[in-house]
Design a protein that fits this description.
The chain has 365 residues and is α/β, with parallel strands linked by helices. 47% of the residues lie in helices and 16% in strands. The strands form three sheets. The chain has a five-stranded parallel sheet with strand order 4-3-5-6-7, sandwiched between helices. It has a five-stranded parallel sheet with strand order 9-8-10-11-12, sandwiched between helices. The chain has a two-stranded antiparallel sheet with strand order 1-2. A hairpin with a 4-residue loop joins strand 1 and strand 2. Helix 2 (16-27) packs antiparallel against helix 8 and helix 9 crosses helix 13. It binds fructose -6-phosphate. Fructose -6-phosphate binds at residues 56-59, 103-105, 108, 111, 155-156, 240, 244, 361-362. Fructose -6-phosphate binds next to helix 3 and helix 10. It catalyses: D-fructose 6-phosphate + L-glutamine = D-glucosamine 6-phosphate + L-glutamate. One of its GO terms (molecular function) is carbohydrate derivative binding. Keywords: Aminotransferase, Cytoplasm, Glutamine amidotransferase, Repeat, Transferase. The active site is at residue 360.
C-alpha cells in the first residue's frame, strides 16, 4: 500500500497536495470564493469572548499556528495548552464558551480528558479529528473532520497539514462572523487557500536538494529551528519531527528568544534551520540570522527567493519556497520541514515509520 514509496511517511508527505485539496473542497465554496462550513455549529463565534484549544504533540503545534490565525483574522483571544497540562490545571472556563480539541487519532487520552473537562464546565466542544469513528469525534458537540485518510506513519504529516487547512477555514469563518474580515480580504484569503495544493506540489520538487542537505543535518548532534509568528510553531514542529524519527536532539525557538539563551549553543557544529517566508516580520528574523552567522552558525533558510535576496546572507543552503500569501505559509512550509526530517532519518538508516518508543495512538497518559 506504500505505492512507489519506500515508507508510509514518504507516501503521506507526497499525498498532501491531494488530501489538502480534498479537505479544502469540503470547507470552501469555490464558486463564491467563500469559506462554507458544511456543519452547523452549535455556538456563535460572535458571542465568544475566548477560544480555548488543547491538543498533544504535532496537533498542539497546529493549534499554536491557529492561535495566530484566530487572533489576527477573527480578533478572537485564544488560550492554548497541551492537553496533559490543561486537564490537570482545571482552568476556569466560561459556561457556553468554546473549547477546540485537535487530534489525528481521536483517541489521545489527555486530549479526550481535556474535552471531557471542558464539557463538565458547560463549554461547547469542537473537535478537529481525522478518524471520524473515534471517541473524541463521538463525544465532541461538533466535529470538523480532516480528510487526510488513514495515516500509518507514526510521525504525523498529512494529518498536520489537513489540520492547518481546517483551522484556517475556521478562523476565516470566525473572522467573517465577528465582522473582523472584509469580504475583499476573505476573498483574497480564499484565493490564497485555493493555491495551496499546487504550492505544496511545487514544494515537493525541492526534495532532491533537501536529500543532499539531510546528509549535513545527519552529522549534527544538535539542531536549532527558529521562526517568528506562525513560523515559530513551525519551528517547534520541525524540531519534533526531526527528533522523533532521527533521534538527533533538536529544539525549536521563537527567533526573538535567541539572545535570551539559546545563542550560547551556536557554533559551526550546530545547523540552524530558519523558517522565514517574506512576511511583515521577516526583517526581524534577518537580524537573528545575522546574529547566528556572526557566531559561525550554519544557516539553512527555508524561505522564498525574495526573502533570500533581501537577507543577503551567506547561508549553508536555502530551500526556496514558492511566493505565497504569508497567511497560508505554514501549510506549504510543512512539506520541506517534513522532508528534512524524513531524509535525515532515512540517511541514518532509522526506521522512520516505526520510531523507537513511539506509538501512533497514545491512549494511556
Ligand atoms: C508527532 C506525532 C505526535 C501526535 C500526538 C497527538 O509526529 O505524531 O506528537 O501528534 O501524539 O496525537 P493525536 O493527533 O492522534 O491526538
Amino acid at each position: 500500500e506504500k505505492g512507489n514509496h519506500r515508507h508510509f511517511m514518504a507516501k503521506e508527505i507526497h499525498e498532501q497536495p491531494e488530501v489538502v485539496g480534498r479537505t479544502l473542497a469540503h470547507y470552501v465554496d469555490l464558486a463564491n470564493g467563500r469559506v462554507a462550513l458544511p456543519e452547523t455549529l452549535p455556538f456563535d463565534f460572535r458571542t465568544l469572548s475566548r477560544l480555548s484549544i488543547t491538543a498533544c504533540g504535532t496537533a498542539y503545534y497546529a493549534g499554536l499556528v491557529a492561535k495566530y490565525w484566530f487572533e489576527t483574522l477573527a480578533r478572537l483571544p485564544v488560550e492554548i495548552d497541551v492537553a496533559s497540562e490543561a486537564r490537570y490545571r482545571e482552568p476556569p472556563l466560561d459556561r457556553d464558551g468554546l473549547t477546540l480539541v485537535i487530534s489525528q487519532s481521536g483517541e489521545t487520552a489527555d486530549t479526550l480528558a481535556s474535552l471531557r473537562y471542558a464539557k463538565s464546565q458547560g463549554q461547547h466542544t469542537l473537535a478537529v479529528v481525522n478518524v471520524p469513528t473515534s471517541t473524541i469525534a463521538r463525544e465532541a458537540s461538533a466535529v470538523v473532520p480532516t480528510l487526510a485518510g488513514p495515516e500509518i506513519g507514526v510521525a504525523s504529516t498529512k494529518a498536520f497539514s489537513c489540520q492547518l487547512t481546517v483551522l484556517l477555514c475556521l478562523a476565516i469563518a470566525a473572522g467573517r462572523a465577528r465582522g473582523a474580515l472584509s469580504a475583499e480580504r476573505e476573498r483574497a484569503l480564499v484565493d490564497a487557500l485555493i493555491t495551496v495544493p499546487g504550492l505544496m506540489a511545487e514544494a515537493t520538487k525541492r526534495e532532491g536538494e533537501i536529500e543532499g542537505l539531510a546528509r549535513e543535518v545527519s552529522k549534527a548532534r544538535d539542531v536549532l529551528y527558529l521562526g517568528r509568528g506562525t513560523s515559530y510553531p513551525m519551528a517547534l514542529e520541525g524540531a519534533l519531527k526531526l527528533k522523533e524519527i532521527s533521534y538527533i536532539h533538536a529544539e525549536g525557538y521563537a527567533a526573538g528568544e535567541l539572545k535570551h539563551g539559546p545563542i550560547a549553543l551556536i557554533d559551526e557544529s550546530v545547523p540552524v534551520i530558519v523558517i522565514a517566508p517574506h512576511d511583515a516580520i521577516f526583517e526581524k528574523t534577518v537580524s537573528n540570522m545575522q546574529e547566528v552567522a556572526a557566531r559561525g552558525g550554519r544557516i539553512i533558510l527555508i524561505g522564498d527567493a525574495k526573502g533570500a535576496a533581501a537577507a543577503g546572507l551567506d547561508t549553508l543552503a536555502t530551500v526556496t519556497m514558492p511566493d505565497l500569501d504569508p497567511v497560508v505559509a505554514p501549510i506549504v512550509y510543512a512539506v520541506p520541514i517534513q522532508l528534512i526530517a524524513y531524509h535525515t532519518a532515512v540517511f541514518m538508516g532509522k526506521d522512520v515509520d516505526q520510531p523507537r518508543n513511539l506509538a501512533k495512538s497514545v491512549t494511556v497518559e
